[in-house]
Write a structure and sequence with these properties.
heterodimer, A: 3 helices, B: 7-stranded mixed sheet, 11 strands
Chain lengths: 91, 305
């Protein structure tokens, strides 16, 4: 049971890293179109949140606190990008 | 102080076994800080550009020196500054800004070579390198040298003249510095105009040869030996008191790395103490925050074409 769970987690983390890497890859490809890059940042974050929630749903350990945690950290990531683009690059 | 730091970074009874830094209220404060901070910095940049802005120091004189240095290191002849090519580069840069595009060919199909001809440069060989979003001449030169196609243009023995344009403007809603480098070898007046070879630098593996009808078996002659004295070099030199790019990058790196460290310490400590919590899913957030830092690197770097 424990081994199965660990394998499941491994698959989950590999998939998550794949999704994030794919997002980064497309952000590189979209350069220098900042508007498109921003959309891709939002999509990558959204996928990250949804993927995490679905994973917990499948594992039957989805709680409101977990959902809030994903949303708050996702929102933090987006505002970090906003801060850099607006304050740093002046976009 | 030690107690305060422990409360902030280490999960324990006083913070309900979750580092205070990772509490939702703290994270919401960070979100508010980034939104308000971003807007305030942007406002300061607009109102007081001499205080806060992006440090930029790119001049055509520096670019010429650096490009020639690279050619010298590779045993090639030095390029001469051509006022016609500099005019062609300027026209190209202004055309991109006025028509809002970032490409070798304009949306209405105008090629770089038409700018050469308009500037009165009758070429045998012609090439174009471009860059945007860089802050120093060294960064631009290094980026060109790191790309095989741009490097091939910089180190081509076919060219004898070069002209640069460094202009600032708004491209697709972004205030940016555009650098255009036009390279060429002047055709002698007696030579037929059809003997032309051009190369664009693109991000593909090989330079794109548009036309290569016939190579001219004559040594290139430099009919123009103009210097920067007669034609003042173009350049952008903006050195505000505070570099907004460095400031925002440092703040972001500091806060995000602090959060990553708190997430790692929470994961390790709770696992060691065998405390059941939501922390076992912290790697999700760690991977996400690392990808956010990588996004910042990608968004902040210049682009060459």
């Amino acid at each position: 049971m424990n081994i199965k769970s660990k394998n499941g987690d491994l698959e989950y983390y590999v998939s998550l890293i794949f999704i994030l890497s794919l997002g980064l890859f497309f952000i590189i490809l979209a350069a220098p179109n900042k508007n498109l890059q921003l959309i891709l940042v939002l999509l990558t974050t959204l996928f990250h949140i949804l993927f995490g929630i679905v994973h917990h749903l499948i594992n039957h350990d989805l709680r409101i606190r977990v959902v809030v945690q994903y949303i708050v950290i996702g929102a933090l990531g987006i505002t970090v990008i906003f801060f850099f683009l607006k304050g740093g690059l002046g976009f | 102080m030690k107690e305060f730091l422990h409360h902030f970074f280490i999960p324990r009874e006083s913070n309900n076994y979750k580092a205070k830094l990772l509490h939702h209220t703290t994270l919401l404060l960070f979100i508010a800080f980034f939104i308000i901070g971003g807007l305030l910095l942007n406002l300061t940049k607009t109102k007081y550009p001499s205080v806060l802005g992006i440090s930029t120091d790119i001049t055509s004189e520096q670019l010429l020196t650096m490009v020639n240095q690279k050619r010298q290191e590779n045993g090639l002849s030095l390029l001469s500054f051509s006022p016609e090519l500099a005019a062609a580069a300027r026209s190209k840069a202004n055309d991109m800004l006025s028509k809002n595009y970032w490409a070798h060919n304009s949306p209405d199909g105008k090629t770089p070579w038409e700018f050469f001809k308009e500037a009165g440069y009758n070429y045998v060989y012609a090439g174009e390198n471009m860059a945007r979003g860089f802050n120093t001449s060294l960064d631009v030169t290094n980026a060109w040298m790191a790309s095989p196609t741009h490097r091939a243009n910089v180190l081509s023995p076919n060219y004898s003249d070069v002209g640069f344009a460094v202009v600032t403007g708004n491209l697709s809603g972004e205030e940016t510095v555009l650098v255009v480098e036009e390279l060429g070898n002047r055709a002698l007046a007696a030579l037929p105009p059809q003997a032309e070879s051009r190369s664009l630098s693109t991000s593909s593996t090989n330079p794109r040869e548009i036309t290569s009808k016939k190579e001219v078996a004559v040594s290139p002659q430099k009919s123009v030996q103009s210097s920067f004295k007669a034609n003042p070099p173009s350049g952008v030199k903006n050195l505000p008191l505070v570099d907004s790019l460095h400031l925002t990058t440092n703040i972001v790196n500091f806060i995000v790395l602090m959060l990553i460290l708190a997430l790692i310490s929470e994961t390790v400590i709770l696992k060691r103490r065998k405390i059941v919590s939501f922390a076992e899913h912290n790697p999700d957030h760690i991977f996400f925050l690392i990808s956010v830092l990588l996004m910042i690197v990608i968004l902040g770097r210049g682009v060459i074409l």
